[in-house]
Amino acid sequence: xxxxxxxxxxxxxxxxxxxxxxxxxxxxxxxxxxxxxxxxxxxxxxxxxxxxxxxxxxxxxxxxxxxxxxxxxxxxxxxxxxxxxxxxxxxxxxxxxxxxxxxxxxxxxxxxxxxxxxxxxxxxxxxx
Length: 128
Known about the structure:
The protein is an alpha+beta fold. It has 2 domains: 2-59, no CATH class; 64-126, no CATH class. The protein has 3 helices and 4 strands; from the N terminus they run αααββββ. α1 packs across α2. Residues 14-25 and 54-59 have low confidence and may be disordered.
């Protein structure tokens, strides 16, 4: 019974904190999930955590075609706020449509290219 409860808690916490894995790939998500699950529920927790972490990592993975479509020679906007995954960009930053991938937006902020969720303006990937 305890193993089922631990596995359920691990799965729920990993799924609820998807932004924590926003920069992760599938492999990184699996590793982080296994590490977290192992700390909470021992070996069974590591197995469940790794599986859930991989699923979460795959769900937020940005296709390489999107990354390579973002121009490198755009002029950068300087902002005082930290530019980190999960945090929104300030309203002063202009978001541009990723060529051939209209579901994504990007900006070049503080000399770093970032992919942004258009509705919330939250950074979902820092490229440079």
